[in-house]
TrEMBL record:
GO terms under biological process: 'de novo' pyrimidine nucleobase biosynthetic process; 'de novo' UMP biosynthetic process; glutamine metabolic process; L-arginine biosynthetic process
Keyword list, A-Z: Amino-acid biosynthesis, Arginine biosynthesis, ATP-binding, Glutamine amidotransferase, Ligase, Nucleotide-binding, Pyrimidine biosynthesis
UniProt organism field: Ktedonobacter racemifer DSM 44963
Annotated L-glutamine binding sites: S71, G240, G242, L269, Q272, N310, G312, F313
Name the UniProt record assigns to this protein: Carbamoyl phosphate synthase small chain
Job description of the protein: Small subunit of the glutamine-dependent carbamoyl phosphate synthetase (CPSase). CPSase catalyzes the formation of carbamoyl phosphate from the ammonia moiety of glutamine, carbonate, and phosphate donated by ATP, constituting the first step of 2 biosynthetic pathways, one leading to arginine and/or urea and the other to pyrimidine nucleotides. The small subunit (glutamine amidotransferase) binds and cleaves glutamine to supply the large subunit with the substrate ammonia.
Length: 379
């Protein structure tokens, strides 16, 4: 017992000493908000200015998955959990994208001494390798309260040289993160076309694990072209960044799919795109939902699911023929919809989780049931 206590005390001493050494040598930087608010901090990432929209995530874990989630493209991510970097960076097979997509990172306490058996490097090394700025700002609580009060806003991390603010929603972020080629995963007699608007890797893993073939296509791919080199039985439209109304070609594809009554499942941005394709409408939330602890109620029931979320827009008008399916228990915003008679449904949250709870993973099974029914196959 005494040996264990001594070992723990030594580890704690090492962590404190390394943190003090980091604080003494780190370069200073500033987070500037478009309303003039200023936060000074210490750099532990790539020391080059960056601009985007500042947002916050209330998850306690999952910073590697969040940073590599394409939905964070153009956003300076603030982690509200006070200790970040403590378990390092896992192998790329654990990431949700092929690289870091967030424009920058803000934390309260950066831990330069990670401890985890799967860690391949410390967070600072990874950020510098991928040229992502990051600041340790002690009062992230004040920053988060400011965002909640005034809404998400443009921001920039600067060092010696200033740069202009940049509105990421002026860009087609979906086109930036989508695959540029057709890719295949898994095998099976059933094929799902995955429209990649910035898909998290675990969407593909979740489908392949259920014995289907997944064909990932670009956001603007014509699934109904005569020269299409593959057939498909259902469509899953993925998560992704930015304003859904910019992805007009994806919306057109979904309209054609509904005309053919092909089973459709939408996730996050895909939920918003399906709503727009069916005649509904979307709007920008004040500060969005980003965490692994968002409660969602099954519409008309008392059952609540805990979900992973990352979005700044929401469905404001559920289209004709659809019914609300899930409701956010915090602010009553729409979290899902399903068609009253046809095999179309979508959810605002992430049933593939990673990070986060797996409460709603059953939605993939429901989707494939719809696909098999449409094929006339036995379930």
């Amino acid at each position: 017992m005494m040996l264990q206590i001594d070992t723990a005390n030594k580890l704690l001493k090492d962590v404190v000493e390394d943190s003090l050494a980091f604080s003494a040598t780190a370069r200073k930087g500033v987070l500037l908000l478009e309303d003039g608010t200023r936060f000074e901090g210490l750099s532990f990432g790539y020391e080059q200015a960056t601009a985007g929209e500042v947002v916050f995530c209330t998850g306690m874990v999952g910073y590697p998955e969040a940073l590599t989630d394409p939905s964070y493209t153009g956003e300076i991510l603030t982690m509200t959990y006070p200790i970040i970097g403590n378990y390092g960076v896992p192998d790329a097979r654990r990431w949700e994208g092929d690289r870091i997509h967030a424009a920058g990172l803000i934390v309260s306490n950066y831990i330069p001494t990670p401890s985890h058996f799967e860690s391949t490097m410390d967070l600072s090394t990874w950020l510098k390798r991928e040229k992502i700025p990051a600041l340790e700002i002690k009062d992230t609580r004040l920053l988060t309260q400011h965002i909640r009060k005034h809404g998400t806003m443009l921001a920039k991390i600067v060092f010696d040289e200033d740069i202009p603010f940049h509105n990421p929603y002026a860009d087609n972020l979906v086109a930036r993160v989508s695959t540029s080629e057709v890719r295949e995963y898994g095998s099976g007699e059933t094929t799902i076309a995955l429209i990649d608007c910035g898909a998290k890797h675990n969407i593909i893993r979740s489908l392949v694990a259920r014995g289907v073939r997944v064909v990932e296509v670009p956001w603007d791919y014509d699934l109904f072209a005569d020269d299409r080199p593959f057939d498909f039985d259902g469509i899953l439209v993925s998560n992704g960044p930015g304003n859904p109304k910019v992805a007009e070609k994806t919306i057109q594809t979904l309209r054609a799919a509904m005309e053919h009554e092909i089973p459709i499942m939408g996730i996050c941005l895909g939920h918003q795109l399906l709503a727009l394709a069916a005649g509904g409408d979307t709007y920008k939330l004040k500060f969005g939902h980003r965490s692994q602890n968002q409660p969602c109620l099954l519409a008309g029931e008392k059952r609540c699911y805990i979900t992973t979320q990352n979005h700044g827009f929401a469905v404001g008008t559920v289209p004709e023929g659809f019914e609300p399916w899930f409701i956010n228990a915090n602010d009553n915003t729409n979290e899902g919809m399903r068609h009253r008679s046809l095999p179309f449904f979508s959810v605002q949250f992430h049933p593939e989780s990673t990070p986060g709870p797996m409460d709603t993973e059953w939605l993939f099974d429901l989707f494939l049931e719809k696909v098999y029914e449409a094929k006339g196959a036995l379930i």
